[in-house]
Design brief:
The structure holds 2 protein chains of 2 kinds. By secondary structure, chain A is an alpha/beta fold. Helix content of chain A is 35%, strand content 23%. The longest helix of chain A has 19 residues. By secondary structure, chain B is mainly beta. Chain B has one domain: TonB-dependent receptor, beta-barrel domain (Maltoporin, Chain A), CATH 2.40.170. Chain B has a 22-stranded antiparallel beta barrel. A 5-stranded mixed sheet of chain B has the order 2-7-8-5-6. The chains are: A alpha/beta, B mainly beta.
Chain lengths: 187, 686
């Protein structure tokens, strides 16, 4: 049965071809993935400041620093500090603070809510209520629960969704340039 | 008695403006993005959006770690400067010479040899090589895509042969479009220019399933003709329709496939000069040359680990062009594979194989009006090109230094076996400063015109012994490839927090450049039009030349809302032979390039979602072509009205009614004056 044999031979060849190539089974661990993803998210977090308009009273002086608070166990580590150090937002330095409780949250302009801190999301939203604080997170239901910008991984890249109703309520104006590159906008 | 030769057309280019990089392989350069070192703060929003979370593929290489003169312009740069065509985009690249010849033709080259048929540059769109095998050079009027979908344009000045896995003598231009996952939703762009010119582009992107994204696009533009320096209508109006698609399938982060294709059809107007056998010997004619073509390309990239990655690519491309002097139908089939292997911590090994089949058919045009006979022998050429390359990158001194050695090998139907080795070294003083140097040998293989032509290209006046005497260009299948030895070095560094500087120096030695050489006796010949004489000119490896110069560029982030990029280049080119005529020198491109180029582009983000861009270009005179120096200022204001609508308005050539940028000493095309253009642009994305 010639046809059968030739099919068999092709299969064998294909198998040999794949086996000959090294590292077929190799893949990237989740750890590497999240480290890189967090690094990019950290850069976005700092970069967002240039696309948000805060009311004047949000800053105590014209050269007061822009404060980014981390709520929950800090996932970024030194990466965020490194990026913040070399960034100047409209003449302001960027300061990173690890918030231990909700009271310190009020002095921040941007607050990153870690997945771990999502348990107390309602309390966070309540204490930030009516203050110009941009709430950023990376949990699936973050925007529905009062968040403003939420990171998602799409097609191996970092994207984000924006809830403009929530940001409006806080008195924040998000530039249309940022809105333009967002994946989805919740009204 | 002094006799003069009247040459009117492209073919009269004595030193043949020619040729081709019969290359295979494709450039797989890496994004100019920051690496793993945490320096992401310098990236723009768009660049951040572009970063891959898992980069199993080659770790994105920092610009500062490439041992070559490389520049990158992004799609965002194009949008902000109101650029609507690929050659115009290249003006922004430091060290690239871009001269617009008429309404739809450009001369684009790096490091000398500028001409419409600049033949020492390799140009690729998404890995597909674009050039004509017949006369070589790139027909820029048919190289286009949806401008909004361009991710970036990478330009390497200098030989790209070994490092990039493809061969190119003076430079590589690689135009890369965005992944279809990044062009989701619908976009409509409308453009109106004084002229009146108009352009409409439409694109739609979506997901077929959660791994397979796609986009389709269509565009059409119509541009009015320019005027010539004497005020006459140049009749170089231009219109073209184009459509295409791209599909990307992410089977997994380490396994990706791309399928893309385009079709286009249009007309490119021109005024040509040709010789007639009777007084006044030179005549002019206008035409709208039909151009059409299409391509389809598939690519499969598989990473087995962060140490091993393989890419396969195949494409088919068809070009049809019927100009006054040029008629060719070209079919190309190209197959390529490339495999990267990290054999050890500090040893990266890269190799590739390629095959290309081309069929160049010139039977469409048997004769050219006037005295021109037009014949290629053979009329139809079927050529095979086999190629391979190997390259090793070795880290030294704990990764601070790097040495790259390799060579490309190929076998072509014109000159047989060829090799193109290079060695490059890079030294990082620290994270901020790096020096590099390289030595390479590259070749340019003869094109069909140099091998197959048998064409009457001019007329000797007054007639010899009272008989009409044709100048006939005769191809020579004995010719060898042109060879170039390049010596380069460069510095790249970050000064302070916000200033990037890039400097490169080069010396190129060209051997065996091809040109037409008067050969032998004037011989009588009989044809239907009666007896006449033939003055034969034979293609031969007859000239050597040298070029040297420097290129500088600088990027300054003045504030988080203001960025400046500047470029300066200085170029010298000399033919090494003594006693050749000025005419011959010109044809080679000596004094046909600006010695000094200067550019300054400013990017400002203003309040209320406004962006103001301005660009200043200075191009010194092209003495050999009698072209004066010129200054060009462009201005663009964009307003992101809301998430859906962006309005832009601007002016190219703000302070100048019009100026001529190039001339047509050799190619028979009459040059036009490049006019001021005022435009408005509406982009709707939803």
């Amino acid at each position: 049965m010639v046809p059968v044999r030739s099919t068999y031979r092709i299969t064998l060849l294909v198998l040999l071809f794949w086996c000959a190539l090294p590292g077929v089974a190799g893949s990237v661990s989740d750890e590497v993935l999240s480290a890189r993803a967090l690094e990019i998210e950290a850069a976005f977090l700092v970069k967002f400041s240039s696309y948000i308009h805060w009311p004047k009273q949000a800053f105590s002086s014209p050269d007061a620093p822009l404060v980014i608070g981390i709520l929950g166990r800090d996932p970024f580590g030194s990466v965020l500090d490194t990026i913040a150090r070399s960034y100047v937002m409209q003449g302001r330095n960027v300061e990173i603070r690890r918030c231990t409780d909700l009271r310190t949250l009020c002095s921040s302009h941007i607050v990153f809510v870690t997945v771990g801190a999502m348990e107390s999301m309602e309390a966070i939203v309540a204490s930030a209520a009516d203050r110009p604080i941009l709430l950023v997170g990376n949990a699936p239901d973050f925007l529905e629960r009062g968040g403003m910008i939420n990171f998602v991984v799409v097609n191996n890249r970092i994207r984000f969704d924006i809830n403009v109703t929530n940001s409006h309520r806080a008195g924040l104006e998000i530039s249309s340039k940022l809105l333009k590159v967002a994946r989805t906008i919740l009204q | 008695m002094e006799r003069r030769i009247f040459c009117g057309c492209l073919l009269s280019a004595f030193p043949l403006v020619i040729a081709v990089m019969l290359v295979s392989g494709f450039v797989q350069t890496t994004p100019a993005a920051a690496g793993q070192d945490g320096d992401l703060s310098v990236l723009s929003l768009d660049e951040l959006l572009d970063l891959e979370v898992v980069s199993v593929a080659k770790v994105p290489e920092k610009l500062t770690k490439t041992p070559a003169a490389i520049s990158v312009i992004t799609g965002e740069d194009l949008r902000r400067n109101g650029v609507r065509s690929l050659p115009e985009a290249l003006r922004m690249v430091p060290g690239l010479h871009v001269y617009q010849i008429d309404g739809n033709k450009w001369a684009v080259s790096a490091r000398g040899f500028s001409s419409r048929f600049a033949n020492k540059m390799l140009v690729m769109i998404d890995g597909r090589t674009v050039y004509s095998t017949l006369f070589s050079g790139v027909f820029w009027d048919v190289q286009d895509t949806m401008i909004e979908d361009i991710d970036r344009i990478e330009v390497i000045r200098g030989p790209g042969g070994t490092l990039w896995g493809a061969n190119a003598v003076n430079g590589v231009i690689n135009i890369i479009t965005r992944d279809s996952a990044d062009t989701q939703g619908s976009l409509v762009s409308l453009r109106a220019e004084d002229g009146p010119d108009g352009e409409v582009s439409v694109r739609h992107g979506g997901w077929l399933n959660d791994r397979l994204s796609y986009r389709v696009y269509g565009k059409y533009f119509d541009r009015d003709s320019f005027e010539r320096s004497d005020g006459a209508d140049a009749e170089d109006q231009w219109h073209q329709g184009r459509g295409g698609f791209r599909m990307d399938m992410n089977i997994s982060a380490a396994n990706k496939m791309t399928l893309q294709g385009d079709l286009y059809k249009g007309k490119s107007g021109e005024t040509v000069r040709y010789v007639t056998p009777s007084y006044p010997y030179l005549n002019y004619g206008s035409e709208e040359a039909p151009v059409s073509g299409g391509n389809i390309l598939g690519r499969w990239n598989r990473a087995f680990s962060d140490k091993s990655e393989i890419t396969f690519q195949a494409y088919y491309d068809r070009i049809e062009r019927n100009e006054f002097f040029i008629d060719e139908t070209l079919d190309t089939i190209d197959l390529d594979m490339q495999h990267r292997l990290d054999l050890a911590e500090s040893l990266e090994f890269l190799y590739g194989l390629g095959y290309r089949y081309t069929k160049s058919d010139t039977t469409g045009k048997e004769t050219i009006p006037g005295i021109y006979s037009y014949a290629m022998d053979p009329r139809v050429a079927r050529d095979n090109l086999f190629s391979g390359f190997v390259q090793a990158r070795i880290g030294i001194v704990g990764g601070r230094g790097e040495i790259t050695v390799g060579s490309k090998f190929e076998h072509n139907d014109y000159t047989g076996f060829e090799y193109q080795p290079s060695i490059r070294a890079l030294w990082n003083f620290n994270e901020r400063h790096a020096l590099w140097a390289s030595i390479s040998r590259s070749i340019r293989t003869p094109s069909r015109i140099e091998d197959d032509s048998n064409i009457n290209i001019g007329l000797v006046q007054p007639p010899v012994n009272g008989m009409m005497t044709f100048v006939r260009l005769m191809g020579n299948d004995e010719v060898d490839s042109e060879k170039v030895y390049s010596y380069e070095s460069g510095y790249r560094g970050r000064l302070g927090e916000n200033i990037f500087v890039d400097l490169s120096l080069f010396y190129n030695r060209y051997l065996d450049l091809l040109s037409g050489v008067p050969a032998g006796q004037i011989t009588p010949e009989f044809s239907a039009s009666g007896p006449h004489l033939v003055y034969p000119v034979l293609v031969a490896n007859s000239r050597d030349a040298e070029t040297y110069g420097l290129e500088m560029s600088c990027e300054v982030s003045v504030a988080d809302w203001w960025r400046l990029t500047g470029g300066y280049s200085w170029l010298q080119m000399h033919l090494l032979d003594v006693g050749i005529s000025q005419e011959a020198r010109q044809g080679f491109g000596e004094d046909q390039n600006a010695e000094n180029l200067f550019s300054l582009v400013s990017y400002m983000d203003l309040p209320h979602d406004l962006e103001l861009n301005s660009a200043f270009y200075y191009v010194s005179s092209l003495d050999g072509l009698d072209i004066d120096s010129h200054v060009r200022v462009d201005l663009n204001l964009s307003w992101h009205v809301n998430r859906t609508v962006t309005l832009a308005a601007g002016c190219h050539n703000l302070f100048d009614d019009s100026h001529q940028e190039f001339s047509n000493a050799m190619d028979g095309i009459l040059a036009s004056e490049v006019p001021r253009k005022i435009y408005a642009n509406l982009t709707i994305s939803f």
